[in-house]
Amino acid sequence: MASRRLGLIEVISGGILWGASGTVAQAVFSRYQVPTLWLTGVRLSLAGLLLLSWFALSQGKAVWAIWRRPKMIGQLLLFSLLGMVPSQLTYFLAIAYGNAPTATVLQFLGPLFIIIYLAVVRRQWPRRIDLISIVIALFGTFFLVTNGHLTQLALAPLALFWGLLAGVSSATYTLLPRKLLATYDARLVVGWAMLLGSLPFGGVLATTHLPQLNATVVGGIAFIVIGGTMLAYLLYLKSLESLAPSTTGMLSAFEPLTATVLAVAVLGTPMTGAELFGGACIIATTLLQALP
After folding, report:
1. What does the domain layout of the chain look like in residue ranges?
2. Quick check: helix, strand or coil at residue 167?
3. Share of the chain above pLDDT 70, in %
4. Other C-beta atoms lying within 10 Å of the C-beta of residue 218
5. By CB neighbour count within 10 A (0-12 exposed, 13-18 middle, 19+ buried), where does 145 fall?
6. N or C: at which end does the chain have fewer Cβ atoms within 10 angstroms?
7. What is the largest CA-CA distance in the chain?
8. How far apart are CA 144 and CA 171, in angstroms?
9. Phi and psi (nearest 5°) for 269?
10. For every residue of 93-160, which 3-state class applies, written as one string?
């Protein structure tokens, strides 16, 4: 019972940190004009280095284990470039062109794309509950992006575009590293994937002219890297030791809930009843997937 209680605290805390980091990202983008590509590169490089350093402190030279197996190197590169980089970049771009609540909710469409992908690969119709989830997700997306009106968008077109891509990237991020995580410690896999994923942003990091960084911006970036990336991910993984994946999937709904509450309360982001209803429908698909 004690371990289960600890697991619940871990997964809820991880979701809250993830959601809060989205709101902080919205603030540094909109109020302090921090470039999106620059922050993505910083997040990937620093979080990757922190994870690898943590692993090396306890496991020593095992930090190089992946690089001794050519097949694993290929899988790591695929995960980094097709999973890690798109999931981080599209999420931040969706926030920059829209806001944290809608970006986080649209990212929750990931399970919908996984259902469709598996149906195509297996050449069979989705289960009844999967079809229900698809209908509810599409219904919710309609209300979220149109505010219930057929003739107009409540979101900027680029915010919708990057938000939907964030959902696709979330599905890719989930599917690609399965063999890697079955073989290696998650800190090792995610750390290397983040560090490798930061390399394409090297030019941006070196040449971007930043606005004057004050203590608030530096603190916000530190929170995104440490709290919203490294700690959030590790808390989520730690919770899997005492909770079923279905439980962690349901409780991950704290991420969009936190992003919405903080963005509305702290940043004054407007959210209509139709948008909140649409977001609730999308989040409900995660709960439905956990029921079986």
Report:
1. 15-35+77-173+207-290
2. helix
3. 95
4. 11
5. buried
6. N
7. 59
8. 20
9. -65, 125
10. HHHHHCCHHHHHHHHCCHHHHHHHHHHHHHCCCCCHHHHHHHHHHHHHHHHHHHCCCCCCCCCCHHHH
| Alpha-carbon distances, residue 107 vs 100, 222, 283 (angstroms) | 10, 23, 10
Range 90-110 burial, b when 16+ CB lie within 10 A, else e: bbbbbbbbbbbbbbbbbbbbb
Write down how long the chain is.
292
Task: Provide the token pair at 99.
Answer: 């806001």
**Tens-place pLDDT, residues 210-249:** 777 889 999 999 999 999 988 887 887 777 777 766 666 6
The reported pTM is: 0.89
Q: Considering just the CA atoms, what is the radius of gyration of the chain in Å?
A: 19
- 3-state SS assignment for residue 259: helix
Crossing angle of helices 186-198 and 232-239, rounded to 10°: 150
| Residue 127 pLDDT > 70 | yes
59-111 residue pLDDT tens: 999 999 999 999 899 999 999 999 899 999 999 999 999 999 998 888 888 87
Distance CA 232, CA 10 (A): 9
- The closest of 55, 209, 251 to 64, measured between CA atoms, is 55
Distance CA 21, CA 220 (A): 8
33: left (phi over 0), alpha (psi -120 to 50) or beta: left
Cα end-to-end distance, the chain, whole Å: 23
51 — phi, psi (to 5°)?
A: -65, -45
d(CA 17, CA 229): 8
Q: How many helices (H) and strands (E) does the chain have?
A: 16, 0
